[in-house]
Amino acid sequence: MNKISISLNLNGEDRVIDVFPNRRVVDLLREDFKLTSVKEGCSEGECGACTVIFNGDAVTTCCMLAGQADQSTIITLEGLAKNGELDVLQQCFLDEGAVQCGYCTPGMILTAKALLMKNSSPTEEEIKVGMSGNLCRCTGYEKIHAAVKNAVEIYKQKLEQGGESIG
Amino acid sequence: MAKEYSVIGKSKVKVDGLEKVLGTTKFASDYSLPDMLYGRVFRSTVPHATVKKLYLEKARALDGVEAVLDYHDIPGKNRFGIIIKDEPCLVDDKIRRYGDALAVVAAKSPEILEEALALIEVDYDEIEPIFTFERALEADAPIIHGTTNIHQVKHLECGNVDEAFKKCDIIIENVYSTHRLSHMFIEPDAGIAYYDDDGLMTVVASTQNPHYDRNEVASLLGLPYNQVRVIQAATGGAFGGKLDISVQCHCALLTYHTRKPVKMVRSRSESTMVSAKRHPMTIEAKTGATRDGMLMAMEVKICSDTGAYASYGPAVITRAMVHCTGPYSIPNVRADATFVYTNNPMSGAFRGFGVPQVAVCHEGQMNALARKIGMDPVEIRIRNAHQIGSKLTTGQILENSVGFIETLEKAREKAAEVLS
A16-69: per-residue pLDDT in tens? Predict the structure, then answer.
C-alpha cells in the first residue's frame, strides 16, 4: 500500500501529512497529530465521542477515511479556546456542571458549536435534535442541554453588544 | 433560618472540569511512551470447550511481533476475581464463555498486531454450553467449575411466615423477570503497563479498583505488592463495570516478558463481550396483607445467573436478599436465593448490586396490592414505610436518618402541583 498526501486546515493551521489511505480520521487526529481530545467510544458512528467540526459540520471521525480529510477544514476541541480564553460553550459546560466523566465532553461541545455556527438561536427542540447524535452515559443530558441554552443567550448578548460572532 | 455552608447548597465548579472542557484530561488510551508496543488478546469463539491445540508459531515468527504468550508464560497465579478467584488470565483448563482469553500478543504497530492475531489458530473439543438457570441445575448438565453449577445458595428468615400468611386477608403472588444489561460506559476499557524508573511494574488503567488491580497483577507475576503500582487514569464512566480486571493483567504480563511499555485498548465489541453484566433475575414473590393494607408476610425466591465467573455474584446475592422487602416493614419474611454458573457472560457489579432487580419486584407487589384493596398506591406505601425504630429482616434496627415517609409526602405534593 502506498501512502497518500493529505493537506488540510487543522485548528487554523495548514498541515500536510503522508498517510496510508486506510487510516481513519480519528487515528489521523489522535495518533499522527496527537490531538487526543478526539475520543473513540463505539467505532461505528453511534456515540459521537469522536466528533469534530469538519467543513462546518459535526461529523464522527471513526467512520471517515483519511482521504476524505484532504482539502478540508477541521476543528477539534484543542482549537476552540483562543489565546487561553475559553469558548463560550466551554465556559457554559463548566459553569453548568455539564461535565461528569468527561469522555463525551469534547464531542458534545463540538456538536453544539457546529449547531450554533449554523443556527445562532436554536429552539429547545432544535438543540435536542442537534445534540441527539452524542451519547452521555453518566446521563448528564439535562445539564448539557442547559449549558447549550446558556451559551445561546450569551452569544446573543455578545452580538447585541457588537462583539464577536459564533463562528 | 437555613444554615449557610461553604459547599452544601452552593454551585461549585468541578475540580477536574477545566481540563475536561479543554480536552486535555488524559484517559488511559491517551498515554503513549517511547518504544511502546500494542497489545491485544486472542479470544475463544466458542462458549464451552477444552483447547486441543493452540497454534502460536506463525504469529511468533511475524516481523514486528515481540511477544505471543499463553498460560505457560504466567510466572505466578493464573486466577483472579474480586471475591472468588475463578477467572483465568489466560485459559489453562477450559474455556467457559465466548471470548475467554487464550493468548496475548504485543507488536510494534496496531497493523502488525492485527496481522499476528489473524495468524493464530485453535482446535477445540467442545462441551455442551449451558445458557439457562434451569439447565445448569439438571443432573446430567456439564459442570462449569468444581463439582456443582450452584454458585451460592442463601436463606434469610424472620418471624413465622407460614402462620402469618394464614392470617392475611389478601395474598398477592407474582413472578418477575429482569434481563441482563451491559453498562456501556462510553470509554472502552484501556490501559498501559511499563516499568518505571525505579523498576516498579506500573499499570495506568481505566479502572474503579486500583488497589485490587495491584494485588491481582502482583499475584499473576509472582511479585510482592511493593513491586507493583497501579494508577487510575481519568475513567470514562464505569457504573460498576470497571471493578473487575480488564486489561491490567494482560498488559502487565506482556510488559513483564518484553520489558517494554504495552498499551491495550479494547474495541467496543470486545469490551461488551467480556465485561461484567447486571445479573438477570427471576423473582417469585408472595406478599400478604390485612384488608387495611398492613403488610404481614412476604416470601421471595430469587434465581439468578452469575455467568461464567463469580465476579461480584456473592455480593449481589446478599444485597438482593436483604433488600427484597424494599423500604417497607414486614414482620414475617422468608427469602431464598440461588445463583448458578452458566456459560453466559459473567454478571457482576452494576449500580445497586442486585437491589434494582428486587425493586422491580417489591414495587410491583405494592402496586398490585394497592389495586386489589382499592387503596391509593402512595398511601399503602406510607402505611408500611420504614421509619426510625423499624426492624429489618436481618434484625437491624434503623436508628436515624430514615427519610422515606417525608420523601413520599413531598413527592405526592409535587405530583399534585404538576398535575393540577
Answer: 999 999 999 999 999 999 999 999 999 999 999 999 999 999 999 999 999 999
Kind and range of the H or E element at B318? helix B313-322
Q: Which percentage of chain B shows pLDDT scores above 70? A: 100
A101/B188 touch (CB, cutoff 8 Å), yes or no: no
3-state helix, strand, coil in chain A (%, to 5): 40, 20, 40
Three-class secondary structure of residue B359 per DSSP: helix
Residues of B in contact with A37 (CB under 8 A): 22-24
Residue range B289-301: mean pLDDT, rounded:
98
Chain A interface includes B236 (CB < 8 A): yes
Partner B contacted by A3 (CB < 8 A): no
Residue B263 to chain A, least CA–CA distance (Å): 13
User: CB A105 to CB B268 under 8 A?
Assistant: no
Q: In angstroms, what CA-CA distances link A63 with A18, A66, A78, A128?
A: 19, 10, 21, 23
pLDDT of B307 strictly over 80: yes
Superfamily of chain region A88-161: [2Fe-2S]-binding domain (1.10.150.120)
Residues forming a β-bridge with A4: A19
As a dihedral over the C-alpha atoms of residue A117, residue A123, residue A124, residue A125, rounded to 10 degrees, the angle is -100
Rounded to an integer, what is the distance from CA B14 to the centroid of its chain? 28
**The C-alpha cell that represents A73 in the structure block:** 477544514
Residue numbers in A near B234 (CB within 8 A): 101-102
Per-domain boundaries in chain A: 4-79, 88-161
pLDDT band per the 50, 70, 90 thresholds, residue A167 = low
Q: Which of residues 36-55 of A touch B (CB under 8 A)?
A: 36-37, 39-44, 47, 49
| Nearest-angstrom CA–CA distance, B370 and B360 | 16
Question: Are B239 and A36 an interchain contact pair (Cβ–Cβ within 8 Å)?
Answer: no
Nearest to B270 by CA among B100, B47, B131: B100
CA distance B22 to chain A (A): 7
- CATH architecture of the region A4-79: Roll (3.10)
C-alpha distance across the termini of chain B, in Å:
30
Partner B, chain A 92-111, Cβ-Cβ below 8 Å = 93-95, 97, 99-106, 109
Distance CA B268, CA B276 (A): 14
pLDDT for B1 beyond 90:
no
Beta-carbon separation of B17 and A97 below 8 A: yes
